[in-house]
Amino acid sequence: MPVQNMKGALRLLLIVFVFVAGVWVQASGTLDELLFYLPDVQYLVVQHLWLTAISGGLAILVAIPLGIMLSRPSMVRFAESAMQVLNVGTTIPTLAVLALSMSFLGIGTVPAVFGLFVATLLPITRNTYAGLKGVSPALREAASGIGMAPIQRLFKVELPNALYVIFAGIRTALTINVGTVPLAFLIGAGGLGELIFTGIDLYDPLMMLAGAIPTALLAIAVDALVATTAFVAVPRGVNPSRA
Predict the structure, then answer these.
(1) Second label for 206, Cα 20 to 30 Å away, from 18, 38, 94, 240?
(2) Which of 81, 67, 224, 232 has the alpha carbon at shortest distance from 154?
(3) Residue 81: which CATH number?
């Protein structure tokens, strides 16, 4: 599916970037100079992860129930319209979303979290919706045939069979979120963008790399963490090919 292809391409791009940057650092003998920024990196990584955790966590808490609601038969005529509304947050460049958030909410963490939340919402909602709609009708009919109520069918049949697709959306959304958080520095929210954009402003490649390499590594680590969680959480016997 397109989401899966985008996720794979993004992971490959990050891996290639880290590899090339690492080779360049080793070849140029600048590792010691990069370590000069280590205290800053340690401090800013905490800010970076905090912004990702808050905005991504809020997106998960809102997007999964919203996807479930839109997948219900009574909401079928509103589902695509709702997706198009959510798509606005993805269509508008993230920097513009952050600027608009800053206009209404001021400078700092709050507008950054709101902007990142909006940008992260669609992939999780759409995958939740698609995963639930993709559950075999035969499974639904079998669950109804043994007397399950709609709420029982949702939690015991539909969600377990949709988990791979839902986790695929979460992996994509959180990986993009980690890579977008550096922009939050531009509205005063901190994060590794402080090293990246200050390095650009000062034309200091080492400072830029000190922020860019940890950002890439964090994105890969978050993707791997969600993938491991999916492997543990998804019931055995569910077809993983959908994810």
Answers:
(1) 94
(2) 67
(3) 1.10.3720.10
Low-confidence ranges of the chain (pLDDT < 70): 1-34, 89, 235-243
Please give the distance of CA 222 from its chain centroid, rounded to a whole number: 9
Is the pTM for the entire model greater than 0.85? Answer: no
Sign of the four-CA dihedral 144, 150, 154, 156: negative
Report yes or no on 30 lying in a domain: no
158: which DSSP letter?
I
| CA pair distance 153, 159, nearest whole angstrom | 9
By C-alpha distance, which of 97, 15, 85 is closest to 55?
97
178 neighbors 14 (Cβ within 8 angstroms): no
Q: Could you list the residue range(s) of the whole structural domain that residue 130 is in?
A: 2-17+43-242
The tally of domains found in the chain comes to 1
